[in-house]
Amino acid sequence: MSAPDLLIIGGGAAGLSAAATAQGCGLSVDLVEERATFGGNYYAGAGETPFAGAPFGKDHAHGAALIAAARRADLAAETLAWRFEPDGRTFTLGAKGAVRPITPKRLLIATGAMERPVPLPGGLLPGVMYAGAAQLLMKTVGHVPAGRFVLVGSGPLLLLVAKQLLGFGLRPEAIVDTAARTGFADSLRSLPAALNAPDLIAKGLGLHRALRRAGVPWHHHASAIAIEGRNRAEAVCFTDAAGQRQRITTDLVLLHDGVVPNDQVSRQLACAEVWNPAQRCFNLVLSPWGETSRPGIFAAGDCTGIWGAKAAELSGQIAALEIAQQVGAMSRAERDRRAKAPLSALARQKRFRPFLERRFPPRLAPPAKAADDVVICRCEAITAGEIRLAIGQGATGPDQLKSFTRCGMGPCQGRSCALAVAEIIAQVTGQSHDEIGRHDLRAPLKPLPLGRIAAQPMAEVTP
Amino acid sequence: MNRASRNPTNRPVEFAVIGGGLVGAALAYGLQGKGCDVALFDEGDTAFRASRGNFGLVCAQGKGDKLEAYAPWAREGVALWADFAKRLQQTTAVDLELEQDGGLVFCLDDASLEARIATCTRLKARSGLGFDVLTPAELARLMPGVSANFAGAVFSREDGAANPLKLLRALHTAVSMQDGALRRQARIERIEPISGGYRLVTAQGSTDCEKVVLAAGLGNSTLAESLGVTLPIKPMRGQILVTERYPLTLNVPSENVRQLRNGSFLLGGSWEDVGYDTGTTFEVTQTIAALAIRLFPFLENVRLVRSWGALRILAPDNAPIYDEIAPGAFVVTCHSGVSLAAIHADRLAGWIAQGALPSEAAPFSLKRFAGMNGSAGDYSHG
């Protein structure tokens, strides 16, 4: 049985920087990453170069440096951590190997973010995907859309993907932008927050300029989005800023409504979480060092709340320093000295977020307003109407709702529906999100063959 | 949704049933059907809720091993199910997915097969419940995909299974059709005797009733304690695995493997004395998976989707407890909330509606444990 000082779940910005920092402090470190490559979403493909001249800029080089710095830790790709116990004991399954238990002294969850699921009329048709997924295909295997495509939603990533596709010579039919109308007063209020990250503001302005220069049709303040098509997506429909219904024919629709924590690991461990109304998602309750409500279990990066790639890297470092202190590899004074700069840089990054949160609130498809025939739980095909009916029949909590409707019981275990369900229960019952919470999450984190579990040395079986 | 059905009201009722699981909901539904004025108090999302961790067998085979009066009661309970399901489905439009095409118990070695046959033979003398002993080869003809890696299986044609989650939902739906009958998020903190009945105290307020039924599963211990009675019940954990969907293959359920109508397999059969821990463990997950693959080798490539643990509520003889522990205060506790749902809604609710338990219920009273010295007894399959 493996028993490192630190086990890190996830090889993105937070996990990689924590691995490098902890390893540098003399800790033994295991890092498991479900995907074939490291870098997470933000630095996906940074370790490899599938094709030269890719339009991914300086970030790519920084990601490659992060991966290189973490290499001295024990990094395992294509390894799923599927079962977690409150003492940090973790069961993993490699691509070919058997189940392996790891009993670390400390566990760090660094599972990053995922795109906010958007329950949308027509959203499950073939030809509809998330913009971030399209970006991953572009960054890791060099696949780009064939045929016409439209970008729908809001947020920095949507615009970034549009610009990166332009770099491949691919021009969107349109950007259907659902960002809120921002008045002068709003912009002024956001100014102090924005000034915390002038480089990011410059990046954003650069995106706008590039897209304008390319002459991409850009429909602002779009609402009431629906995707039409018989057997696949054929058109995007929306109400424009003037209140007119518009229809754009397309082969592919790329959706994006911001990102939310990919927090299935901390949910399986039932770490305390709190609703963040500005981010419209749950954030983990953490100590200043990133320790969760379960002693010895840490979390860093976007799986704790959406703070961005730079903040993820910093929070990974900070958690690693405290972990080094806890396992006796570093004095408190040394920890404090080394953490001073990253802590203040992290605080600055966090002060910047309200600017983005105000600029890009999730407006693509608010679940509380979803029509009754819109599917909320994709695995079990449960509609908003069925959920509302079950709430009316007594399922006013997410666990009872799950047992009444099977919503959240499928292979994704609510990864794509849990937030939407909380929004609908809140709207129907008037309870707060913190009162409602989310349903229990069970092992395994993702489906795996029974034979792989049973193929372990085991005790005598009795029926 | 109106406010009355959302918030506990304080209106006094004739019957208060404490516990919104399968036992309490079946009793409340049954009492309503007999014209009683009923309120069902459901603790809500945080309850241990054995009903949600259930395998869903509707079975009589083996029941009564340590209390033979339970054998005919369980058999009658199974016999009443079809009619119960039909009426409940008509009322609520919820399909309970009842199948009564028989049920199996697998015995891995000759000794356990012989012991099982002896038990079933003894109980048949009391209940009349027939059974067949099948060799692996005989079973393979009925059930493609089964291995030969066990000694034999005992088949009871009256047994079967239903969908326990849908049963709970249907019962809640039916009960809540009477406005205010389902009191949600209403955890009863204590019961106080008052003139002409009882006062049930929740965090939000209190409700007076003439008669009260304690059907709160493991919560019954504390509630009965407030009336000065100690219940000899304890939790026994069972872990269940559920797989991805698979083409319909298994037509007969067992305690170890059953296939739901949606195609998922449920795998289970663990009995663990671990107190109030509803967690799962890797070791038991592995054991359940290995046993399922031993019986049905094709399961090796079927993917596990979820696992969970739930607590059975066991008396020392694994049989139900029905008793009137104070005037007008009944306690109903059992671990077979699905198998006994029909007979609880029909016969047991009938007795309680009339206000007293008849002599037929005497074998299930707490008196049978007198002199037991509070020992846990011998817990095993039931």
Helix content of chain B: 25-40%
Computed structural class of chain A: alpha/beta
**Low-pLDDT segments, ≥5 res of chain B:** 1-8, 373-382
| Largest beta-sheet characterization of chain A | 5 strands, parallel
Mean pLDDT of chain B: 91
Cα radius of gyration of chain A in angstroms: 22 Å
Structural class of chain B: alpha+beta
Largest interface: A-B, 41 and 52 residues
Question: Which strand-content bin applies to the residues of chain B?
Answer: 15-25%
Enumerate how many helices of chain A there are, as a single number: 14
Number of strands of chain A: 23
Straight-line distance between termini of chain A: 28 Å
Task: Give a verbal description of the structure.
- The complex is a heterodimer of chains A (463) and B (382).
- Helices cover 36% and strands 20% of the residues of chain A.
- In chain A, helix 1 (13-24) runs parallel beside helix 8 (309-326) and helix 3 (131-141) packs across helix 4 (156-167).
- In chain A, the strands form seven sheets. Chain A has a five-stranded parallel β-sheet, covered by helices on one side. Chain A has a five-stranded parallel β-sheet with strand order 9-16-10-11-12. In chain A, strands 4-5-6 form a three-stranded antiparallel β-sheet, with no helix packed on it.
- Chain A has 463 residues and is of the alpha/beta class.
- Chain A has helices at 13-24, 57-70, 131-141, 156-167, 184-194, 198-213, 264-268, 309-326, 332-359, 384-392, 398-405, 418-429, 433-436, 450-454; strands at 6-9, 29-32, 74-76, 79-84, 90-94, 99-102, 106-109, 113-115, 128-130, 149-154, 174-177, 218-219, 223-228, 235-239, 245-249, 252-257, 259-261, 273-276, 281-284, 297-299, 375-377, 382-383, 448-449.
- Chain B has 382 residues and is α+β, with helices and mostly antiparallel strands.
- Helix content of chain B is 29%, strand content 24%.
- In chain B, strand 16 and strand 17 (329-333) form a beta hairpin.
- In chain B, helix 3 (70-79) packs across helix 5 and helix 4 (81-92) packs across helix 7 (164-176).
- Chain B is globular, with a radius of gyration of 21 Å.
- The chains are: A alpha/beta (463), B alpha+beta (382).
